[in-house]
Amino acid sequence: MPFHLVFQPKRIIEAMNRYLLFILFTLIVISACKKPKDEKVQTFRYSNPNTEMVPENAASNSENEHQSFGDKKPRKEKQGKVSRRIEEEDRQGLELPAKLKDRSENMLKKQGFAVSYNNKYNCPNYVAWHLNSKRLKGNAHRTKFEEDPRVAKSNRVQWYDYDGSGYDRGHMCPAADNKWNQDATNETFLMSNICPQSHNLNEGVWNDLEQKCRSWAWRGKDLYIVCGPIFDNKHPKTIGKSQKVRIAVPDRFFKVVLSASDEVTAIGFIYPNSSTNLPMSDYCVSVDSIEAITGIDFYHILDDELEDIIEAECNPRKWGIQ
Predict the structure, then answer these.
(1) What is the spatial distance between Cα 157 and Cα 246, in angstroms, rounded to a whole number?
(2) 3-class DSSP assignment, residue 48
(3) Positions marked catalytic
């Protein structure tokens, strides 16, 4: 043993103490880093940005509790896919646009359709109906035009108001779409369902579109249709036998069609109220574009995301229109 260690015992003791303290500290650190094999570490998640943290393995009482911090929708919606199916029980009233607030509107509910009647123009703002193959089956026959007793006398159009005007009594909801019931067919001949329409349009491409809709219904499509006049001029031309009841002549007509069968799709059409004979695809437009022109909110009961998707589309080929 070296000479300086033999004669300096205090230094030996101090060195040993320091060594023992180092060993003890090391053992404490190692022990702290280990956990029992069967001990579970409890992690936390946020059930909602406005609530406290809850254990990850805590039972969930609602779908919202499965949201991660900052999510606006349940995780099942985070994939970015919007369902394009509408269950039958959710289609009730789908054809009816939102209530109009910027113009005269008198709602007239008929057996086979609904009329939004404009007492200023003495014709519809729009007519809306549901069409499927069942409504095309029956023996109902055409009848004669009549005044609508549910319209105030001061705004009641007579069948003879169109005589000598140069315009046809143009159906908005066609009689042939209501073969299922004679009363429903009769109501299509009420003057509240009629607009002044160019003869060539009424008998030509507008009739072609009506037949096209029926062909879709015969093939199983469940259709929700709205059509009506477009007035580009705030002071349109008028017709009528009386100076008290003047009927505004539309500049154009629109029709929007939604199919709720299988994958939901929609398409729109705009026709000039004049002699025209272009292919049907030339009149096709998106529902959005018709909303922008008319100020009418179609299919508003749909989920907003689905409504945005289908109303922005204009795909004639998807509808078999060349």
Answers:
(1) 8
(2) coil
(3) 171
Q: How far apart are CA 300 and CA 298, in angstroms?
A: 5
CB 86 within 8 A of CB 94: yes
Residues whose CB falls within 8 Å of the CB of residue 53, separated by 6 or more in sequence, listed in order: 44, 45, 46
Token look-up 């956990």 returns 35
Whole-prediction pTM = 0.75
198 and 274 Cβ atoms separated by less than 8 Å = yes
pLDDT in tens, 13-58: 666 667 666 676 666 656 655 544 444 333 333 233 333 333 333 3
How is the chain split into domains, by residue range?
3-33, 44-77, 88-319
Contacts of residue 158, Cβ cutoff 8 Å, sequence gap at least 6: 147, 191, 241, 245
Count CA atoms within 13 Å of residue 52 on its CB side. 2
CATH code for residues 88-319: 3.40.570.10
